[in-house]
Write a structure and sequence with these properties.
Elements lengths: L9 H19 L21 H10 L7 H15 L6 H17 L2 H26 L5 H81 L3 H30 L16 H10 L3 E7 L5 H21 L4 E9 L2 E9 L14 H11 L3 E7 L2 E9 L7
Parallel strand pairs: 1-2
Antiparallel strand pairs: 2-3, 3-5, 4-5
Helix pairs in contact: 1-2, 1-4, 2-3, 2-4, 3-4, 4-5, 4-6, 5-6, 6-7, 6-9, 8-9, 9-10
Length: about 400
């Protein structure tokens, strides 16, 4: 598929038509910069100035799409104009072609043309003055400067301003794009944080509700059903309270903070008591000093999720929780009975391990989970200061 040639700009067509009509009007009125008796006038036919005028006017539509070609033809037309009676409009149109060649031409041409015209201006003034030994020769250089160097320099200045404005626009667009990317990343990170909080806070209560409701439905024992309903109610109330707290955080527009009243390691005993009430045999072994709040929250949530998984998936037996602080990190380990091929005791699974792994990774720590002999082991090392485990 062939590409159509570029079309001249409508403003350039108007310049060409206006310049041609203006030059014809001056020619009809007999207004010329030279007279037939001048030494340089070699072609004194009355209609001769119309030839270079038509040539420069025909170059105007090329000033944006073919600026170098337009300047070359315009230069030939200007030289031809100097040997006729001449036209002021031809010179004016040529200055516009020189200006456009620098403004719209290639970067190499934009650098060379002002330098070349500057040298011609100097030589055009110095050489005639030296040869003729007449200061009037300097006027030739002045003429070259007005016709060539001045419009070329103007085009160079305008081009520099245009390029600077374009660079500033691109920089502003890039800055806005980076800001939007940062905003999207911040929103994504905040959504992930609240997703982890929602899962860790509610999953434990819902798992207990699912297990005890299954027991209440499957056993025809009023006392067992009553005990199961009591546990269901307790976990429903606790889960509802957690949900309300999270909704309150979401409604708070201040943002950029951990949830108010975040759980701490001091609350592990209460968490273990709740797991025991749900039917787990849990032991807690702790030995740690004060740790940073983000580490406390991550450790609490990992233990909470491990107990939830044990409630849903573990085989009967004791669940052991151990927390130790050494080597600049808090090390926690949760083990529970495990038999290959055991089916879950409650529906729903999949995102708990991902959430625990993300919590450890955000602190620069490590996390592993998997079977060890006949037990399922969850291990995490959470550095107390950033970079301790790097």
């Amino acid at each position: 598929m062939s590409l159509a040639p570029p079309r001249p700009h409508h403003h350039d067509l108007r310049i060409a038509v206006g310049g041609l009509l203006g030059g014809v009007l001056l020619w009809a009125l007999g207004i010329h910069p030279r007279v037939a008796s001048d030494t340089l006038v070699l072609w004194d036919a009355p209609w001769a100035p119309l030839v270079p005028l038509a040539m420069t006017a025909a170059c105007e539509p090329l000033r944006r799409i073919r600026p170098r070609l337009g300047l070359l033809i315009g230069t030939a037309a200007l030289v031809l104009d100097t040997v006729t009676l001449g036209s002021v409009v031809t010179v004016v149109l040529y200055t516009d072609l020189m200006y456009a060649a620098v403004l719209y031409g290639s970067p190499a041409a934009a650098r060379r043309i002002p330098w070349v015209t500057g040298m011609l201006t100097v030589l055009g003034g110095v050489v005639p003055a030296a040869l003729w030994r007449d200061p009037q020769g300097l006027l030739i250089g002045v003429g070259v400067g007005v016709v060539a160097f001045a419009p070329a320099s103007t085009g160079w200045v305008v081009r520099n301003h245009r390029d600077a404005a374009e660079a500033a626009r691109l920089h502003a667009e890039q800055t806005a794009l980076l800001a939007e990317m940062d905003r999207v990343q911040a929103v994504t990170a905040e959504r992930s944080r609240f997703a982890r909080e929602l899962h860790d806070m509610v999953a434990n209560h819902l798992s207990a509700i699912a297990i005890h409701s299954t027991a209440a439905l499957s056993l025809d024992d009023p006392k067992t059903s009553k005990d199961a309903l009591a546990v269901i109610r307790e976990n429903s109330v606790a889960g509802l309270a957690e949900m309300r707290r999270l909704i309150g955080i979401l409604r708070d527009s201040s943002g950029d903070h951990e949830p108010a009243a975040s759980p701490t390691l001091d609350g592990l005993a209460t968490l273990v008591d709740g797991a025991r009430a749900n039917g787990l045999d849990v032991t807690l072994d702790t030995g740690h000093d004060s740790v940073p709040a983000p580490v406390e929250l991550a450790a609490y949530r990992i233990v909470q999720e491990s107990l939830t998984n044990a409630l849903k998936h573990a085989a009967p037996g004791r669940v052991h929780i151990s927390l130790r602080q050494h080597s600049g990190a808090l090390h926690l380990r949760v083990t529970s009975p495990y038999r290959p091929g055991d089916s879950p005791r409650a529906p729903g699974s999949g995102s708990g391990l991902t959430g625990m792994r993300e919590r450890a990774a955000l602190l620069g720590g490590s996390f592993t989970a998997g079977p060890e002999e006949d037990r399922w082991s969850v291990c995490a090392a959470l550095p107390l200061t950033e970079g301790d485990l790097a």
